[in-house]
Amino acid sequence: MKQTIRALAVSALLTLPGAVFADHHMGPKDINSLVDKAVSLNAEGPFAGSFDTLIALLTAPDGNRASILAELDDRGQNTVFAPTDEAFEALTETVLTLGYCSLADLDPAVVDSVLLYHVAHGRLYAADVLATERVRMLSGGFLLQDAAVLTDNLNRTANLIPGALDIEADNGVIHAIDTVVLPVLPDPGPGSCL
C-alpha cells in the first residue's frame, strides 16, 4: 500500500500537461519561485525524485489548489516545510486506519488544509525557525519547534532534514521535513479498501 501513494503521485505527474509547471502563473514572470525551485530540486541533485507526491498534490485540479499554487508562485515571501515522498508513504498507515484507501480519497478541502499547514508567511531561514518556539502556518494553525523538531496539532513530530534546509527561491525558502504534519485528523472514511 505504501507504493500506492507514490504510484498515484507519479501517475498524476505524468498525466499533467507539461505546461502546468512552465505556465502555472498568469502573465509574464521573472522570478524563480518556490514552485520552480521545488520542481528543479525534484528533477536533479541529491533530492531528485524526493518530492513527487508534494508536487502532484499541489498541481492537482482539486479543491483550492490553484490558489495555493498561485500563493507559492507569486512575489510574496513564504517558507515551505516540504515533506519528502517517504514522509507521505509513512502517512499511509494513518490514512488506512481512518478508512481511506489512499490520499486521493480524502476530501480535497482536507488536503488543502494539510498543504497550507506546511507553509508559513515570510522568509524563515533555519536559524529563524530554530530561534522560535512556534511557527504560524498559512492554515491559521501553529507548528511548535524545539531543537529542529516540529510538533503539529496532533502531537506528531517532524524533523527538519539536515542538508535540505535554506533552499532559496526568489519568493521564499524551502526546508525538507521527514513527516507530513497534520492540522487536524480527517473524519473517518468509508473503510472499504478492496
Automatic annotation (TrEMBL):
Entry keyword annotation includes Metal-binding: no
Span of domain FAS1: 38-181
Record keywords, A-Z: Signal
Signal peptide: 1-22
Superkingdom of origin organism: Bacteria
Pfam families linked to this entry: Fasciclin
InterPro entries registered for this protein in UniProt: Adhesion/Biosynth-related, FAS1_domain
PANTHER family hit by this protein: FI19380P1, PERIOSTIN-RELATED
Name of this chain's protein: Fasciclin domain-containing protein
Organism: Marinobacterium weihaiense
